[in-house]
Amino acid sequence: MNEAPAANDPQTFEDLGLHDDVLKALADLGWETPTPVQRDSYSLIVDGNDVIVQARTGTGKTGAFGIPLVDKLMSIGGDEQALVLAPTRELALQSAREIAKLGARRGIETVAVYGGASMERQVSALKKGARVISGTPGRVLDHLKRGTIAASRLRVLVLDEADEMLSMGFAKELNAIIERLPSNRQTLLFSATVDRAIKRVAEKHMRDPVFLGLSGDHVGALGIEHFVYMLSGMGRVGNLISILEIENPESALIFCNTKAETEEVSAALKRAGFNAEWLNGDRPQREREQVLAQTRRNEVRFLVATDVAARGIDVSHLTHVINFHLPENVEQYVHRTGRTGRAGRTGTAISLVGPNELGVLYYLRLQYGILPVERTLPSEGEAKTRREADRIAMIDLAYPNPPNERALALARRLITHPDAERMLAGLLGAFFGPDTEDIDEVAAKQRRRGRRATTPPAPRDPESEEPLTPEAEAPPTATLYVNVGKSDDLKASELGRLLRERTGLKRREIGRIRVRNTHSLVDVPEERAKDVIDSMAGAVLRERELSVELAENEGAVPRS
Ligand code: AMP
C-alpha cells in the first residue's frame, strides 16, 4: 500500500473545483466546508486511484465518495454505473438518500437495493437508468445473477464499512460480487478499522491502492466525545449507577462483554429504579424484537447488550454508548462507540475502566489517537449532598398541596425560632424513621422513577441555566413541540428565557427542555399549555419563526 501524499490543503468546496451543480447541491444540504476526510480523499479519488480510507460513520465519509461520484466519476449522459456496498440496509438506504441529493442537480439518480423490499420496484428503478446503486451484498448478488444489474456497466465499486461487512459474514458474497465486475473498475474501500482481513481484501481486489489513514481525530466520529471513569475494580454495578446519576444520559446502549452480565446489569438498573432492558443471543427472537421495538419507541432508556446482539440494529437515536467493561480490542471500541453520534448527531462514549483494562486504553491512544477525558466518581461529600437533595424532594412530593393557614403560620414561627434546627431535625427524624440507608434508596428510586421513559430528561447542557435535574412536578404537565433544535444551535437556556419572557411562566413552572436535532420539547403545566402556545405565536429565535404546538408523543412529534 502506498501512503497518501500530503494534500495541498483545499479548504472549501470551491477549492476542490467542484461543478456548479454539485456546489449548489451541497448548499441545499447545508454543508459549508468539506470535512477532513472529504478534503483529503477528493483528489485521490478523482485521479482514478484505488483508495483505502480509514474513516467511520460521522466523519462525512458518505460525502467523501458521494461527491467525487456525482461530480466527476459518473459522466453526464453516459451509461456507466457505480456500486456502493454496505453492511446493513439502513446504511444502504441512508447512503442512497445522501448521494441522490448530491447528484440531484446533475441528473444522476441513485437506487437503493436491499433484501426484504420489493424486487420489482428495484428492477424498475434500475431499468429507468439509476447510475448509482447502493445496496447490501446479498440482494446485489441476486440482481447480478438475474442480470437485472449489468456487471459490465459497473465502473466504480465502493465498499462502505468494509470491516463491518466482513465481521457480519459477507466475505463470500463480496468475493462473488467482485469476481463478476470488470477488472478495469476503480475500487474505493472505507473502513473504520484496517486489520489483516481488510488488507487481504485490498491485496486481492484492489489495484495498487493508496492508503489514507486519517489522524486520530478524524477516525472517530466528529461528534463523539470520549470519557473514562477509572475504577478500583470493586462494585462495578454500583459505580455504573453513580455514573448514570452524574452523567444523566438521555438514553444509552450499555455494552457488556458476556451474556450473563447483560442480564445482571439490567436487573440491577431496574432494581435501582431505572428503565432498562437487556439483549443477548440467548433471548428468544420474539422477545428481542419486542425490546427493539420498545427501544425505537423511546420506551427503553438503557439497553444493555452484547456486541453480537447489538450488531446491525439501528439504535442511532440513543445518545450515549457506555462500556460497562472495555472490549478486548480497540477495533471493537471504535465499533461500539460508533453506535452513537450517527447521522450528524453528537454522541458521548463513556467507559468504566478497571485496573486490568488499562492496556486497551493505551492502545486506543496509540492506534487511533483517541484520548478519552478522565472523569471521577463523586466523592463521599458529593454523594451526601445528593442524598440530602433526594430526601428533600421526598418531603416535597409527600405534601403537594399547601397546608392550612394554621400550619403555615406555625411553620413560619418555627423557622424563626432560635432552636429551629434542633426541632426541625427532630421532626425529620420522626418523618424518616431510623432506617437511614433504606430511606436513601427509596428516595433515589423515587427520583429516578419520576422520569417517564417516554420523556427522558434533557442531557446536561453546561451552558444551560436550567436546573440539571428538574424534578417531576406534582401538577399534570403537557409536552410542547418547538420547531427549532440543535441544528439551529439552540441552547435550552435560550428557549427557557424566551418562554419566561413571553408567557410569564416562572422558572419552576417550566419542566424539562429537551433540545433535539431538528426540534425541541418542553414540559409546561397542562393548564397553561394553550395560553403558552398562543403567547409564543410570532416569536422568533435563531432567525426562525417559532411554531409551538402540543406534541402528541415523543415518537410522533410533528415535523416542521
Ligand atoms: P457520514 O460519516 O457519511 O455518516 O456523515 C455524517 C453526517 O455528517 C451526515 O449526517 C452528513 O449529512 C453530515 N455531513 C457530511 N459531510 C458534511 C459536511 N461537509 N458538512 C456538514 N455536514 C456534513
* Percent of residues in beta strands: 15-25%
Structural class: alpha/beta
Provide the residue-averaged pLDDT: 84
Reading off the top of the CATH hierarchy, the class of the largest domain is best stated as Alpha Beta
Major beta sheet, strand line-up: 1-8-2-7-6-3-5-4
Give me some keywords for this one.
single chain, 560 residues, alpha/beta, Rossmann fold, Alpha-Beta Plaits, 3 domains, seven-stranded parallel sheet, 22 helices, 21 strands, disordered C terminus, binds adenosine monophosphate
Summarize the entry for a quick read.
The protein is of the alpha/beta class and 560 residues long.
Could you characterize what this model shows?
With 560 residues, the protein is α/β, with parallel strands linked by helices. The protein has three domains: 2-215, P-loop containing nucleotide triphosphate hydrolases (Rossmann fold), CATH 3.40.50; 220-375, Rossmann fold (3-Layer(aba) Sandwich); 460-560, Alpha-Beta Plaits (2-Layer Sandwich). The protein is 42% helix and 16% strand. Strands 1-8-2-7-6-3-5-4 form an eight-stranded parallel β-sheet, with helices on both faces. The chain has a seven-stranded parallel β-sheet with strand order 11-12-10-13-14-9-15, sandwiched between helices. Strand 11 (276-279), helix 13 (285-296) and strand 12 form a beta-alpha-beta unit. The longest helix has 19 residues, at 380-398. The protein is globular. Mean pLDDT is 84; it is low at 216-222, 451-473 and 554-560. The site of adenosine monophosphate has 14 residues, from helix 3.
